[in-house]
Design a protein that fits this description.
The protein has helices spanning about 10-15, 50-55, 75-80, 140-150, 160-165, 170-190, 220-245, 250-255, 285-300; strands at about 45-50, 60-65, 70, 85-90, 125-130, 195-200, 245-250. Helix content is about 35%, strand content about 10%. It has one domain (about 10-300): Rossmann fold (3-Layer(aba) Sandwich), CATH 3.40.50.1110.
């Protein structure tokens, strides 16, 4: 996701430059561990679309990929290995919104990434899509604005108050995101009418109760954080129902693995350049997402 309020892309690029042994992850199969014990049939051409929760910035090993910060152990690579995919085309890109599916993306000044949908064609047999959190700068507001406002009222609700005064109206935002993602899925199906399409939700960031140093929100704003992350995933689920595609509910799957938990699947506020960018998935989260996606694909193919 886009996280301009917390970690600028320039800082991200510096961090990635320090990662040893970077290798390209787009268009190649992964040698990562198989998240499924099944022996699925070989699949032909798999295209992975999405933002940083798909790309996996700083999950070893990460490639700059023109600023997209794509890992060779993100869930698309693990899914490709598990499903014995012949060709993986991973065009996921950190900071992407639904607009970047059909328009060129500019991760940093001087860098241009082609529209992600350009990778999808009639030969495609599987598409996964994890997108929407950057629409209307929703994620940037949560981890940038809301964490910054904590210092003004640590025990209060400065983030909730900000939304009330400045917007966006969250209910309208979720409606817009559901509409945008619905259109995105329909565009995928138009370009690849015979492909299995799977919509992938977002991992849980905020705990169900309590607070923690790793997620520096004002005490009263943890509820607002839950509202944002639940609402985002509900918007994606609505899009999946409208388009009749499988939805992988990673919010539900990651219960007990939020950033404050003893076994987090998502990093907290401190970037670990050997593991994950701040507020982004760890390798464990990617493995969990891969297991869920593989299961969804197998259910779809057997129905």
């Amino acid at each position: 996701m886009r996280s301009r309020g917390t970690v600028s892309l320039a800082v991200l690029l510096v961090l990635l430059a320090l990662v040893a042994g970077c290798t390209s992850s787009s268009g190649a199969q992964s040698s990562g561990s198989d998240p499924s014990s099944a022996a699925p049939r070989t699949m032909g051409r798999y295209v992975a679309l999405g933002d940083s929760y798909t790309a996996g910035p700083l999950v070893p090993t990460t490639d700059l990929a023109g600023g997209c910060a794509r890992s060779d152990h993100n869930y698309p690579h693990l899914v490709a290995a598990a499903l014995d995919v012949h060709t993986l085309v991973d065009v996921s890109c950190s900071g992407a919104s639904t607009a970047d599916l059909t328009e060129a993306q500019h991760p940093f000044q001087g860098s241009t990434v082609p529209p992600q949908l350009r990778a999808v064609d009639r030969r495609t047999t599987l598409v996964t899509l994890g997108i929407g959190g950057n629409d209307l700068d929703l994620f940037a507001t949560l981890i940038g604005t809301c964490t910054r406002l904590r210092r003004s009222d640590p025990g209060g609700t400065p983030c909730r108050d900000y939304f009330a005064q400045h917007g966006p109206d969250l209910d309208r935002a979720f409606t817009t995101i559901a509409t945008n993602v619905t259109a995105a899925v329909r565009a995928v199906r138009h370009k690849a009418p015979d492909a299995t399409v799977v919509l992938v939700g977002y991992l849980r960031l905020v705990p169900d109760r309590g607070t923690c140093v790793a997620l520096p929100l004002a005490t009263g704003d943890y509820a607002e954080g839950r509202r944002i992350t639940r609402g985002l995933n509900a918007a994606l689920e609505r899009a999946a129902k409208r388009t009749d595609v499988p939805f992988v509910d990673m919010y539900a799957a990651s219960h007990g693995h939020d950033a404050c938990s003893a076994d987090p699947w998502v990093n907290g506020s401190v970037t670990d350049r050997a593991k994950a960018l701040a507020y982004h998935p760890f390798a464990a989260g990617m493995r969990a997402a891969a297991r869920q996606v593989v299961a969804a694909v197998e259910r779809s193919r057997s129905s």
